[in-house]
């Protein structure tokens, strides 16, 4: 899994690298700028070629020409119209410093580059100042205003180096107008040729939220990029909130500070130590960082270690609701069975038995009238995972069953979803019964009912950076509930009470909007229950279930309905070598 960093973590790593004496801030800035230029040429190979010999944008032809570094390009001698044009917008901090490096390197590659600076050059931080001075020896810098920017001629590339991880407050005044303009407000579309350095300006790198002074602002003050080039590791804000919408695509460039993540203090100086922070991992498919595992791997030991009979593979028990309401629980049961539970039983109210029996074959059926019946059933110690909530009903029977599931002498690993979450929100005594082997799977509405104060913080406008994020909210919720919380969405965040946190982001190349279909959440609850039955720990079951859920959707493609998700698992398992 790829580790995601916050702005503070990245700063601490950079600090440790510089304090170690192995690298200077200026060198890091040069590597960052070089990384951006390399990423531009990799994303738009035609831009690495002379204007009139390049294939049309979009890269027909396939072969990637080498970036124009090293020997001077022959068309440097040509007329200005033959040259590629870039507009580089630099801000008042080190993000702006990266911008000056990009400008210089593009110029070295034969481009015509126009540079704007927002702020006072005298007040730039030292490394940015050095790069500013290097640039002004080459060409002038124009003070950045919306009006000045609107006067520039069309460019092949726009580089947004206004703000990176240092955005602390809303962008105001004329610059806010410019960011709205760059975000597409008013109809001009810069996105196809906009590259953001580290993070699109205006967006908080931690929360993926646009920092705004106005709670009612409808037009975001942040750029929209086609490509965002970040350094060392992706940041949380690239994957949650509005981050994916603004970033376009994420490319991570190594700047040689990875060893300082777990850096031990220099024994002689005691310096260079990175304090460990709570980890946030990205459960992803694509390789993002050179030497990390490309896949989130399902731990196949759990699937291969037991060669015994079906109960050796776990027995999941899914509680269902009343007549005509059994579909959700049946979907969960199917998910639990397909993901690998050796046996799955559906507990149905007596009146709904016939209806359920008509729909089930491999899934066993058991009459479950009330909590007394549940108590008797749970004497069967082979039942090692429970799922309650899908289609349960917001009534006394439902509440009594939630209490029955959570109470008892030996509470089992349990997934609480849908109606069970609403019942928990209505009865704090029930909420207090949650234990470490529970997994709560709320969507945003259920989350707000369960954790109203946390949701209020999350939904309040982001008026400062770093802003409170979905990652913060899920961590806080898990701590409060004392169990694993899986906060659903395209940016599903999963946390346990210790602070361990993962994001299963169905965005970028894992985007699967067709996953938002009726019953999809019930199948997810079933996947997690089946994995619990199979022996996975609560956090691992939630992470693996969420990952498989997205992968099934991607594998099936558009047109998916909830019933298709479990049926896609065998194909996926084959591909994973299980
Ligand atoms: N951390 C690292 O390891 C590296 C960081 N680098 C770059 O440095 C960046 C971080 O630099 P900084 O910490 O200087 O932060 P930024 O360059 O993101 O911005 C900080 C500056 O912007 C001002 N500012 C913040 N919010 C503002 C607002 N709303 N309106 C007007 N001014 C505002 C601050 O007062 C400060 O002057 C990264 O995003 C990255 O691009 C790279 O040079 C390479 C290495
Ligand atoms: K930026």
Automatic annotation (TrEMBL):
(6S)-NADPHX binds at residues 94-98, 164-170, 198, 328, 391, 443, 522. The keyword Ligase does not apply. Its cofactor is Mg(2+); K(+). Pfam families: Carb_kinase (PF01256), YjeF_N (PF03853). It comes from the Bacteria. Residues 293-576 form the YjeF C-terminal domain. K(+) binds at residues 95, 160, 201. Its EC number is 4.2.1.136, 5.1.99.6. Gene3D superfamilies: 3.40.1190.20, YjeF N-terminal domain. The keyword ATP-binding applies. PROSITE patterns: YJEF_C_2, YJEF_C_3, YJEF_N. Residues 10-263 form the YjeF N-terminal domain. SUPFAM superfamilies: Ribokinase-like, YjeF N-terminal domain-like. It catalyses: (6R)-NADHX = (6S)-NADHX; (6S)-NADHX + ADP = AMP + phosphate + NADH + H(+); (6R)-NADPHX = (6S)-NADPHX; (6S)-NADPHX + ADP = AMP + phosphate + NADPH + H(+). Residues 52-74 are annotated as: Disordered. AMP binds at residues 488-492, 521. CDD domains: YXKO-related. Residues 53-67 have a biased composition (Low complexity). Keywords: ATP-binding, Isomerase, Lyase, Metal-binding, Multifunctional enzyme, NAD, NADP, Nucleotide-binding, Potassium. Binds 1 potassium ion per subunit. Catalyzes the dehydration of the S-form of NAD(P)HX at the expense of ADP, which is converted to AMP. Together with NAD(P)HX epimerase, which catalyzes the epimerization of the S- and R-forms, the enzyme allows the repair of both epimers of NAD(P)HX, a damaged form of NAD(P)H that is a result of enzymatic or heat-dependent hydration. Catalyzes the epimerization of the S- and R-forms of NAD(P)HX, a damaged form of NAD(P)H that is a result of enzymatic or heat-dependent hydration. This is a prerequisite for the S-specific NAD(P)H-hydrate dehydratase to allow the repair of both epimers of NAD(P)HX. Belongs to the NnrE/AIBP family. In the N-terminal section; belongs to the NnrE/AIBP family. Homotetramer. This is Bifunctional NAD(P)H-hydrate repair enzyme. The gene is nnrD.
């Amino acid at each position: 899994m790829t580790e995601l960093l916050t702005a503070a973590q990245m700063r601490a790593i950079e600090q440790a690298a510089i304090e170690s004496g192995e690298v200077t801030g200026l060198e890091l800035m040069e590597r960052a700028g070089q990384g951006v230029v390399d990423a531009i040429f990799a994303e738009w190979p035609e831009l690495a070629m002379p204007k009139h010999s390049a294939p049309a944008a979009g890269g027909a032809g396939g072969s990637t020409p080498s970036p124009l570094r090293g020997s001077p390009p022959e068309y440097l001698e040509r007329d200005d119209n033959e040259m590629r044009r870039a507009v580089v917008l630099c801000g008042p901090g080190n993000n702006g410093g990266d911008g000056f490096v990009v400008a210089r390197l593009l110029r070295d590659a034969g481009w015509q580059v126009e540079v704007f600076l927002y702020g006072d050059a005298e007040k730039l931080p030292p490394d940015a100042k050095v790069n500013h001075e290097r640039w002004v020896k080459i060409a002038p810098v124009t003070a950045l205003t919306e009006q000045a920017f609107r006067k520039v001629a069309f460019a092949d590339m726009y580089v947004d180096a206004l703000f990176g991880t240092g955005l602390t407050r809303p962008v105001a005044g004329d610059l806010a107008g410019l960011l709205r303009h760059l975000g597409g407000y008013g109809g001009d579309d810069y996105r196809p040729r906009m590259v953001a350095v580290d993070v699109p300006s205006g967006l908080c790198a931690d929360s993926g939220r646009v920092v705004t002074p106005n709670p009612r602002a409808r037009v975001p003050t942040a750029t929209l990029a086609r490509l965002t080039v970040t350094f060392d590791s992706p940041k949380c804000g690239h994957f949650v909130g509005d981050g994916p919408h603004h970033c376009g695509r994420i490319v991570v460039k190594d700047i040689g500070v990875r060893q300082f993540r777990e850096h031990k203090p220099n024994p002689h100086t005691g310096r260079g130590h990175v304090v460990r922070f709570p980890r946030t991992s990205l459960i992803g498919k694509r390789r993002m960082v050179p030497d990390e595992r490309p896949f989130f791997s399902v731990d196949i030991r759990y699937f291969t270690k037991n060669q015994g009979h079906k109960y050796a593979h776990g027995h999941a028990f899914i509680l269902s609701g009343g007549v005509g309401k059994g579909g959700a629980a049946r979907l969960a049961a199917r998910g639990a069975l397909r993901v690998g539970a050796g046996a799955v039983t559906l507990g149905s109210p007596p009146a709904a038995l016939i209806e359920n029996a008509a729909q089930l074959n491999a899934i066993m059926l058991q009459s479950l009238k009330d909590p007394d019946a549940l108590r008797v059933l749970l004497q069967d110690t082979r039942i090692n995972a429970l799922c309650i909530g899908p289609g349960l009903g917001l009534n006394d029977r439902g509440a009594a069953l939630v209490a029955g599931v959570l109470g008892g002498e030996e509470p089992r690993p349990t997934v609480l979803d849908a109606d069970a979450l609403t019942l928990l929100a209505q009865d704090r005594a029930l909420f207090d019964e949650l234990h470490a082997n529970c997994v709560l799977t709320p969507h945003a509405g259920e989350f707000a009912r369960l954790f109203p104060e946390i949701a209020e913080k999350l939904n309040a406008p982001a008026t400062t950076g770093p802003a409170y994020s979905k990652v913060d909210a899920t961590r806080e919720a898990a701590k409060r509930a004392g169990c694993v919380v899986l906060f659903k969405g395209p940016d599903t965040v999963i946390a346990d009470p210790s602070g361990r946190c993962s994001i299963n982001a169905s965005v970028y190349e894992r985007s699967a909007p067709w996953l938002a279909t009726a019953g999809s959440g019930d199948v997810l609850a079933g996947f997690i229950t089946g994995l619990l039955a199979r022996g996975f720990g609560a956090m691992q079951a939630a992470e693996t279930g969420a990952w498989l859920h997205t992968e099934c959707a991607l594998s099936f493609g558009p047109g998916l309905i909830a019933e298709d998700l479990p049926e896609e698992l065998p194909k996926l398992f084959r591909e994973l070598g299980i």
